[in-house]
Each structure stands twice: as structure tokens, then as C-alpha cells.
């Protein structure tokens, strides 16, 4: 491409000239060649990340030493085109110039005009965007990442390995941390998922100065020598925490396409994804600081001043603007804060006044007649334009503040009697303590708050100052508590933005019952039972409606114990709808992830609490940590917000502080008891000390009678006099630990979330492995590795949004579900794992076999497979004894795994032989026209004893090469028919109706509708789905002890294989095709093909004999019909097997011998065997005569299979999964080394 002419000082450094003329030179980068020079240049380009294009054109006049770069390209074709254009269009003109300076000026102007024309023809693009695209392309190429994996940013750094640094580049994508280094021909690669990171911290010591330490479960890495280590660490921390949240919620990352484009900001030289993450971090901090809804996104901020009328001064700070709010925070922390919802704004205008010295002021007037004056706005017109745009997008309805809302005791969407009426604050309906002293104190508090309202404003639009915090610490009057909680928690914003939402939820949840509502019902009467409001239906009904409505709103959380206690207190001081929105604020914003199924948020805060305790109370931390008491006390305190451990009338004061800026009382409680706790010797004594202390906390200003907890220890008389007032305790906490800010808590939460989530994942893994260990042959480390790769494949669907998450959230979070049901994969993911790990998926038909295995395991018809079924399948394939493996292989070729309507030619790979593919296509087409969906009725078949003895005879005869080619098979068929006839004449055959009843099973709605065949509910895990039995067969070799095979066959048929359905001829042909496919590219391929042919011939004869006895025909008729049908089935099977299989079967000789040459002609006596000599017309006609009455049993298949020693040796071998799992996990590390230097 053409580039703006730039001066080049060293024209020949690292470059080789390929073409030249008096005015231009075409050069190639030395790094593109081989040898030591190319190696050095390639290393230098990689370390410096210079991204120099390999080809360029320079302009240089004959008498000048200065060169100008005019074109550069990544390939020789484009640069050659530019070179030819220069020679054709400029050379003649340049020769006419007398001055070299004029020639150079002409070239520069010409190139710049070309660039201007190109830029006018296409959208203008930032150079940094083009540069980042190159880095992203390199990232995908180096690490074999799919296009869905988005690169966020990349940094130059060093990886310390064996105390030696390797300079390279670290690539940070949404889901992976990658590092690449190329030094002197040696490359180093690291690919780590963010979900595997267990620790992330910064270090600064002599060995690793200014480094970042990354730990996973098995490795640790040190990165250092960053240009900006703080920015790199912040991004890594953000991506790691984003991955932890994905593990909790199982939701993938979605880029925000609605990022604001600021006209007053210069374009930032970073990727759009990096800007997205930066905007997310800033928006999250913005919402946390002002308690705004989780959907609010920060649009921008600017410095300005705010006029504070209460002290008549201008306060410097920052104005924050978002679609729903205007917020202001002073430079001095906590001096003044303002939150103005757009819905409350009446007007916004300029406040220019010639008598006013303010610079660019604006006035914001609210519906409640509050006025806010902002000045010193750098770009006032743009801010006014933004505010006007946001106001125009506000909904038409206007919501009044809480102070103006009705307080008549009931709430509803309208005054209609048809609308639901909700309960008002329960505290108004119950008696107070009736003391004049207490009433006076309450009146004084109310008076102080009203004075505060008159000076600073009331409702959401107020000046929040230190005076507000002082009133909060002294305690909120009971009449105002609900309003104060709503205002300072931000719940009022969500309630005002969603009118009628709670009423609609209550209406939707009427009559709904599931496991969540059952849990709610069990806990209703345990919620604050000491309070009279919850000893009657009035409070119980309101509590039920609020909890059920929230469970319906947020099924990811649903209901968690401790929510009932918090909600019951909220209902005392707020109306039913207000309590609902307060609960929403607590669960989704103020205490994130506290009340999900794993209580992740509480565990994270427990880690934060322990770290703060180690910092402020190190001696006590060591003591309680040794006793193991910290985890016991912190969870019960945090989950219920101290409501379960402190008397209710005192705990509400802690809620006052919590809704304002968070409570800091935990450290104070331990500090006040540190002397006694340090002297304890066991955890029981320490718990008694803390419980007694908490129960002694009182509230002298409470209007309610004291209500001790029902499970609280009795307080002795001498301890009653030493009670602690809750107000004094709160003042003590804010004075001792005032340096702990909410921002510091948020940073510590990000740090500890990694450890907590990973510990939970490890615990979940142990539970899953424990639950499936008895159902699979895979054990110990292999089972652990298999679960890891299974889970990674499951999470991949959320990474790159290749599959949608489960829609039934109530079923997903059902606590009654077994652990192995937590992670499920669909067919695409199952197929990926099956092809990568299963030794049976080695041929061309591996995908078809994966589909049949998926059908077999998907018993409930939800198109999902859990880990228990998957581990059982691979366990049988890789570890089980041969009969169990063959049972599974047999089951993969009968319903529900193989359907009669299947057409393998539509999905399977094409055969190497064109004739095979054509004949197979014709066969399946004809078969589909005639086939039915019903399995043939079981026919009277040979018993296991007879078949075993016959199999041994067949094995002896087949291995005797001295006999003629015709004798073995004819003798076997004849003897089989005669012995079977004698046996069946001595026994009374089972009636077809009875056999049909024994074979059929009860169908579930899913399987019946899906056409997968009937599956029994009772026996589906042991028979239909082949779940391994608890007692496996003795480990015996089938190659050295043929005398024991009849006994094993008889045992298998009676205990395990009795109810396995029969196999018809169509299914048998598919089985032979799969068996042949599994033997491809094997060192003993010819010998295995011969064994398959022998096995197929014998089973075709056995099935023909069994069919003849079922039809009760004469012996002569059976022989003639059997020969015809056997030939037909053999022809059908031959269409799917290679020529060498049929030839080796025809001559009966061992592969590689002279008799098995391709030119050998089958004998006339072997016309029933597999043959490819039939013509196309005869083959087509024979397909139409496919025997629908033919069938064999699994016992017959297994006994015949055991006679073929090569097949037994091949399929009896056990497989170690570890190697395949390791290759699959590290598949992205194996890149094409020959192309690594491309694009660098």
C-alpha cells in the first residue's frame, strides 16, 4: 500500500535490494530469509514488536543520500504492482526534471495525492486500529484461537523461567492469558485460561522487580519489565474477576456495542474491547459510589463547582453524567454528594448573569423545587446537549418521591378494587413500649431530621454531607426508617423506574409451586418468630409474597436461607413493595453474590474480613485462625446482617449504617473482646464469649420491647448491668476504622474472589468425582483429568456463545439434582470430545458412531449428556472387560442408538471406492423405502451352551489351513442347522406374544416422541443404557483360556445380557461397517479384515437358521431359502467392505499368503460368502430382497466374536486416557512452526 513519504536514514540496514532504477529501489527485509542474519533480524522484530512489513519501495535521487519510503506491503505481489505503476507513470516525467529537489517534491506530492484519493473512497480509519488488527491476526495465528476469541490488549514483558528472563509479548484476551517469545530460533508459548487462575498479585523484590505473579493449580509464572505494570495488572485483574463471575453465573462475555462516542475526547489508541472494559470498570465504580441501578452506564465526567446554599460556598468536584442521572462528588471525600435522577428534573438552563462572576454556570431545577447550581464547566454546550438528549428519552410518567407518596397503609398500582392491595409497614400496626421518656427521645430525633430536611433537602435530590452521616449514626426514627433506607440504598430509583412491576410479579406467582416455594414455606415461621408481626398471617402473607416474587424475578438466586430474616425486618419498616425493592438492592447491588446457591459473596467478604483483621488486629487474627473460628462467625454475621446474633431492636441501627455506606462493626466487636479471646483455649469458649457480648447489646432509644433471640444463651444478672449501647458501639467502629472505605472493600473483593471461586470449583469437582466413581471404570487421576476437559468443553459454549445456556433455570438450580447433573454438554461438544478421546473414533465413521453413542446416552431426550454418562461410556470403551465392551458396541447398532430410518450416506465420509459409495447409496435408498420402524419380534434362538460349543468347533475348523476351502463353511452351516433343529425340537418355543412382552419396555414421553425406541425406567441404567454393574466380571484373558469361554458366555447371557434386544439384518450390516472402520490403518489390517469376514459369515448363517425355525418350515425349504437369503445379505455387506476383505474371506487363507492374492478366484462352494463379483443389477435386485425376518442375539454375536482371536486381541487392549486428554487440552500449543514468522 502507498504510505505518506517518510525520510529513511539507513536505507540498507536489515534490507536487501531486489530491484532498482535511478529514482526507486524495491527492497526485502532480511528476516524473511534464512541463515544467521535472518534469525537475528526475526528475533529483533519479535522482541521489539516492530511489525515492519517485509517489502518496501524507497525513492532516492542519484545525487542524494536521503531516501523516502513511498510504499510497503506484506506480500511480493502487491509491491510488484506498485513498482510497475511507478515505472509506467513516473519515470518519464522524473527524467525531465533538471533539479533533483524538484523531482523529489513531485514524487512526494504524487504519492500524497494517491493517498488522498484512496482515503476519500473508503471510510477513514485510525492507524492504531489497523495496527491492532495486525496484532489480533498474529494472536489468532500463534495460538490457534478461533475468531470468536477477542484480544483485549498486548504488552511487552519478560517471562522468568529458571531464573532467566525471556523477552516476549503477553496477549490478554477475554478468556485466555497467552505469552509468546521467539529468541534465536527457539520459541516459548504459554496459554492459560482465566478460569484456571487461582492467584494474581503484584510483586517488587530484588529477584522479580515490578513483577506480576500468576498462579494456576499446577504452575506459576512471573512476568516483569513492563512499560506500564499498573495498567497491565489492572486489566489482568479485571479479566480474571470477569472469568470468576462467568464461573458463578455461567454467562459468556458480550461486548457492549453502545459505548458513548465523546466528541470532547481525543481518540484513544486502544482497542474497542479495551475501551469497553475500561468503561465497564468506571461504570461499576460510578454505580457503587452513588448506589445506582446496575443497568446505569457512565457517559462521561467533567470537573466543575457546586454551589452549596447551606454554607454559601462553591465546592470543587466532578460532575458525572449518565442516561438516567446527574451526580456530583466533591474532591474532599464525603464533603458533599448529590444524586439527581433525570425523572426528577424539571428544567436545565444556562445561568449567565452580567452581575455574576461565575464561569459557564448551569442551573438544574427539580420537581421538588430544589435548585442546583454548577459552574466552571469546560464544555457547557455539549453537557447541555447531552442532558437534553437524556431528558427526551425519559418515560412520560412521573413518579413522586417517597415523602410525597401516600402512607395510608395499603399500596397498589391504582385505586381500583380489582388491583392487588399490599401490606403497609408492619411497625405501625403493633404497640410501642409506651414510655414517655422513649417517646420524647423519638420526637427529638424526628425533629432533628426535619430540620435537616429543611436545610439540605428531602428525598433523593438532597445535599448529602457529614451532617447526614452523623444523624445516621445516632439512629433513624422509626417513622422515617423506611424512607431513609429507600433513599440512601438507591432502591427508590428502581421502584420509581418500574411502576407496577411488583404487582405483576405477585399476580404471576399466584398458585405457582416448585422446590423454591417449598423452601420458602418451610422458613416462613422461622423468620423473626419473637416479633408479634410474624406470629399471624398478616406478616407471614406479606413475607411469602415478597420472597416468592423475588425468586421469580431472579431465578439465578431464587431463595436462600437468611433472605427470610432480612426481608422480615424490611417489612416492619417499609411497605410490601418497598421491601421488595430493598431486597432487590441488597441481593443484586449491595451484597453481590451473597444469596446464590454457593454464597460466593459471603465467602469473599469472609476473606476480606480476615485480611483486614490481619492488618488491624494481627494477634487476634492469629489466635482465632488457630482456633478455626473466623469462618464460623463471619458467615452467620454477614448473611443475616447481624439480625440473627444481635437483638432485633439494636440490629436495625446497623441496617441504618449499612444502607448508607456499609457497616464497619465486625472489627469493633472483636477488638472490644480481644483481651478475653486471647486467653481462650478452645473454640467453644470463644463462641460463648462472643455470643454473650452480642446478646448484651441494647438500644436505649428503641420504642419496641426487648426481644432476645430464642436460641440466645441466658444472660446472668451481673452481666445485665454491663450492657453495651448500639449507638456507642457504632461510634466506636467509625472512629477506630474510619480509614476503611467502600472503594478499598471493592478492591479486596476482587482479590479474594479468585481464591473463593476456585475453592468452590475444586469442591464441586470432588463432589462430582465422588458421585460418579462407582459408575465408571475410569479412576483416580484419569477421572480427574476427564472431568477437567469435560468442564472446559462445557464452558467453551459460554466463552464463544456457540451454544445457548439451559433455559429451565428452576431445574438448573434445583438442589435435589445430583452433582454430576451440574455440567451437561450437547451433541456438538460430545462429538468433539468423543472424536478426541475415544479409541473407537479412529476411522472415517467416527462422527456417526458419536451420534449413535449420544442417542444411547440421551435417555431423557433433552439432547444433553451429563458427566456420569460420559465417563461411563469412555470407561467401558477404554477400561471394561471385553464382553462389556462388545455389549456397548452391539447396543450402538440397535435402537435407540441406530434407527431404521438412518441414512449413513448423508452424514458419513465418502468411501475411497466410487463403486462402494454408489452401491451403498442405492442400498440405503431401497432399504429406507421398505423398512419399518418396528424391531422384529424375538425368534427362538440357540442357547448360549449350544452356541458356545458350536463356536469352538468353528474356531477349530477355521484355523485348520490344511482342509479345503469349501468344507469348513458348508460343514458349519449344515451342522448348525441340524444341531439347532434337534435342540429346538426338544424344547417348547416361547410364543411370539410372550417374547414381545419380555422384550418391550415402558416408554417415556420423550423417548416415545423422539422415535428412539422403548426404554424402561427401572432397567434403563443397567440394561438399556448399559450402566456398568456394581460387580464386574473377573479379569480373564480370552486369548489363552478358550476352555473357559462357554462358562463365561453362559454367565453373561443369564445375568447381564438376557434383555438385550435382537439385531436385524440392516443393523448387522451397519455393525460390520463400524467394525471395519475401527480397524483401518492398523498394522494387522489384513488379518483383522479376514476376521471380520469370518465373523460376518458365521453370524449370517446363524441368523438364517434361527429365522427358519421361527417360520417352522421344513428342513429342505429352510436350506434352499437360507442359501438365497444368505447370499443376499452377503452381497449387501460386501458393498460396504473393501475388496481385500471379501477376497480374504473367500479363499479362507491368512493375509499375506499366496492364496490371498488379489487375483484369486472364489470357489463355487463358497458362493454364500462375501463377494464383490456380482454385477450392479443383481446387487440392486438383491437389496430389495433384504431379509426382514433375519435376526441374531447378542449372545450369538459375543460367542462368535470370541472365536476371532485377532479381533479379540485388537479390541481387548485397554487404553490410557491421560495422553489423549493432554493432547486435547494443549492442542492450541501445537501450531505450524513453518509459518510462525509470517505476519511478524
TrEMBL record:
Residues 475-662 form the Rab-GAP TBC domain. The keyword Repeat applies. PROSITE patterns: EF_HAND_1, EF_HAND_2, TBC_RABGAP. Residues 976-986 have a biased composition (Basic and acidic residues). Residues 403-419, 1152-1178 have a biased composition (Low complexity). SMART domains: GRAM, TBC. GO terms for molecular function: calcium ion binding; GTPase activator activity. Residues 852-880 form the EF-hand domain. The keyword Oxidoreductase does not apply. Keywords: Calcium, GTPase activation, Repeat. Residues 1032-1042 have a biased composition (Basic residues). GO terms for biological process: system process. Residues 398-419, 923-1047, 1142-1178 are annotated as: Disordered. Residues 946-961, 1001-1010 have a biased composition (Polar residues). This is TBC1 domain family member 9. It comes from Paralvinella palmiformis.
